[in-house]
Amino acid sequence: MPTVLTNIGQLASARAELSAKDAGLVADAALAWADTGRILFAGRAADLPHDLRSAPTIDARGATVIPGLVDCHTHLAFAGWRADEFTLRCRGAEYAEIAARGGGILRTVKATRAASEDDLVQRARGFLSAMLGVGVTTVECKSGYGLTLDDELKLLRVYQQMRPDFTGTLVSTFLGAHVVPPEFRDNRTAYIHLVCDQMIPRVAAEKLAGFCDVFVENGAFTPDEARQVFAVSKAHGLRPKLHVDQLADGGGAALAAEVGAISAEHLEFASDDGLWGMAAAGVVAVLLPIAALYLNKPPLDARRCFALGVPVAVATDFNPGSAPSYHLPFAMTLACTMNRMTPAQALRGATIVAARAIGLESELGSLEPGKRADFVLLDAESVEHWLYQLRPNAVVGVYAAGRRVA
Ligand SMILES: [Zn+2]
Q1: How many other β-carbons are positioned within 10 Å of the β-carbon of residue 356?
Q2: If you measure from the C-alpha of residue 73 to the centroid of ligand 1, how many angstroms do you get, rounded to a whole number?
Q3: Of 260, 305, 266, 272, whose CA–CA distance to 286 is shortest?
Q4: pLDDT for 1 beyond 80
Q5: From the CA of 313, how far away is ligand 1's center (Å)?
Q6: Ligand 1 center–CA 348 separation, angstroms
């Protein structure tokens, strides 16, 4: 039996074929879905097909309805926090300086190695349910705080354990090449071999991840090391993703195009040539404005990406260092004010374009027939008003595959 959501004040379909600036807004709308959890209709209430007019209804009471949000870049499972580093940064310490003093990513690695799989599951579940509460129904989660074979597998198994109980969608990314762990500091080559010869084959054999990410930056990995990792990951069916050009232009955008990455993230210092290459190769640029805000770094002007034809997504980068917030609507408002996106572009960036960044654009990310009925009801008169007047939480209902989950 289908269900129809009626009395929708504004519906944002974010349909894939619309232009980057078009959120697909429809006033006085209705949304219908089948028992299978698939959308049957999304559009003007007046156009609702006759066979759906006698179906049971739910009154949206004038709410704005958007697709379930897609956070396409998080480091969801980790142990410990690093609030003291936040204070150090507020006093003027640089990210690289904190890392050199034993803080930063390696501190989280130490804590995460010491944590049990069960403890990590418990904690990540809490984050995930809070994310659902702000309208996020699909989450990409990375490893990268283990950096040994066993600890990287442990992190990816955390996500695998969470998947059956999560009503939304979880996608995993292997990030063994996050930073070089201390025990390999004097032998980087050996660590790259460990990633390529042991970690990737196990991750692929156990189907623990769909993507392979590399952090290319001073203090992390070089473009050549990334090429080695991707040569192996692609042979094992793991598509490349990249953290690049966050602190300096390291040629990361061009590298993303060269290796056929599905997405490249950060990009604050990416060159126009690099972005042009990404456009030609169809690589999604993922903006992480919360990280730029916390690190007090100049944000990327998204209009440069749009002018060159690069699709732009927005994500939180949720992690205990540079982006300790999992509030995707907050990131979307920042994408408007810091990255110069319009609310419509930010909405597409956190729905259909984000879905493309994790290879799920034909399954979810927009409200159109055939897709998963993942949607969010907002107590706001429009998408524009929602992102303009940022409130702790304007979400009044969250549905995943047609079932109310928050
Ligand atoms: Zn990240």
Answers
A1: 22
A2: 6
A3: 266
A4: yes
A5: 14
A6: 20
Helix, strand, or coil (residue 336)? helix
Whole-number Å distance, alpha carbon 399 to ligand 1 midpoint, is: 27
**Do 250 and 243 form a contact (C-beta atoms < 8 A)?**
no
Taking the centre of ligand 1 as the mean of its atom positions, its distance from the CA of residue 205, in whole angstroms, is: 25
Q: Residue 100: what pLDDT?
A: 77
Give distance in angstroms: CA of 4 to centre of ligand 1. Answer: 38
Sequential DSSP letters for 267-279: -TT--HHHHHHHH
123-147 mean pLDDT: 98
Ligand 1 centre from 178 Cα, in Å?
9
Residue 243's alpha-carbon distances to 11, 57, 216, 347, in angstroms, are: 33, 45, 6, 22
How far is the first Cα of the chain from the last one, in angstroms, to the nearest whole number? Answer: 22
What is the Å distance from ligand 1's center to 145 Cα? 11
Ligand 1 centroid vs 383 CA: distance in angstroms?
27
Q: How far is the CA of 239 from the centre of ligand 1 (A)?
A: 16
Residue 406 has pLDDT above 90, yes or no: no
pLDDT of residue 129: 96
CA of 263 to the centre of ligand 1 (A): 12
Q: What does pLDDT average to over the chain?
A: 96
Residue 259 to residues 239, 349, 363, 386: CA-CA distances in angstroms? Answer: 9, 23, 25, 38
Q: In angstroms, what is the span from residue 242 Cα to ligand 1's centroid?
A: 9
Using a CB cutoff of 5 Å, list residues around ligand 1, an ion: 317
> In angstroms, what is the span from residue 384 Cα to ligand 1's centroid?
27
User: Rounded to whole angstroms, how far apart are CA atoms 276 and 64?
Assistant: 35
Count CA within 13 A, CB hemisphere, residue 370: 5
Q: Please give the share of the chain, as a percent, with pLDDT higher than 70.
A: 100
Please tell me the distance from the alpha carbon of residue 223 to that of residue 285, in angstroms, as a whole number: 18
In terms of Cα–Cα distance, which of 401, 375, 389, 405 is closest to 64? 375
Q: Which residue has the tokens 């997405």?
A: 263
As a whole number, mean pLDDT of residues 242-250 equals: 90
Q: What is the pLDDT of residues 379-389, one digit of tens each?
A: 999 999 999 99
Q: Nearest to residue 105, comparing CAs of 158, 154, 145?
A: 145
Alpha-helical (H) ranges within 101-211 are 105-114, 117-133, 149-162, 188-193, 200-205
Please tell me the distance between residue 151's alpha carbon and the centre of ligand 1 in angstroms.
18
- Residue 236's identity, in one-letter code, is H
